[in-house]
Amino acid sequence: MENASPPTAERSVERLNTLSDGLFAVAMTLIVLNIHLPAHDAVHTENQLWWAVRAIAPQIVIFLMSFLTMGIFWIGQQAQLRYFKTADRNLSWIHLAFLAAIAGLPFTTHLLSEFITFRVALLIYWANISALGALLLISWTYAEHARLLVDDRPAGLSGAIVRRIVFAQALYAVGAALCMVNTYISLTVIVLLQIYFAIGPRLVLRRES
User: Residues of the chain with pLDDT > 90: what percent?
Assistant: First the structure.
């Protein structure tokens, strides 16, 4: 006689989706708090305010970079969830680990904005991104192995998703490695990669007839 899974052993895709949306919304809001407004007592003229805003420009860039990061990974997770027909206990924990990495982004964003010229801060931020990519890859690989995917998914979908994740993480690693030359160069490359993955061409997959 087969052992029936307890009710708590499975979590619906809808509940995972709801939890993800809520946590992403909170994390995306928290990162803007890393931008410190200019000290009011130090600003008395329009020119002083202009220079004060210019001084916090790196913090604004880091905010935009992290917002793009979260947007890219939210879309990546949503792309996976739409092909899950159900979620078991293991898959739920994989996505909880993914959300834990998302919850850590406000911290690594703040660390990088405060120590933008330090390689360690940038590498910690990159490690956060790397963890997110790895967990999405683990999620898809496990779901496919455990037969949790819908049957009518497009032909070649699995290979396309795996290649896209591996390709993106490899490019992010190259961008992070450039911090050994200069952290600003490294950040520029990472931002350009994020813009590409945010607005770049999408792979069109045909469904099997």
Answer: 47
Q: What stretch of H or E contains 152? A: none
Contact criterion met (CB below 8 Å) for 158 and 205: no
80's tokens: 């996976």
In angstroms, the CA 41 to CA 53 distance is 14
Nearest to 160 by CA among 138, 140, 146: 140
From residue 78, alpha-carbon distances to 4, 32, 169, 196 in Å are 29, 23, 18, 19
- pLDDT value for 202: 57
Residue 8 has pLDDT above 70, yes or no: no
> Exposed/middle/buried for 55, CB within 10 Å: 0-12, 13-18, 19+?
exposed
Q: List the structure tokens of 78.
A: 């949503």
Whether 105 and 69 have beta carbons less than 8 Å apart is answered as: yes
Burial of 184 (0-12, 13-18, 19+ CB in 10 A): middle
pLDDT band at 48 (very low <50, low <70, confident <90, very high): confident
Judge whether residue 128 has pLDDT over 80. Answer: yes
The Cα–Cα gap between 141 and 146 comes to 9
pTM > 0.90: no
Q: Is there a contact between 35 and 114 (Cβ–Cβ < 8 Å)?
A: no
Tokens 């999405």 locate to 136
Q: Which of 180, 75, 198, 76 is nearest to 126 (CA)?
A: 180
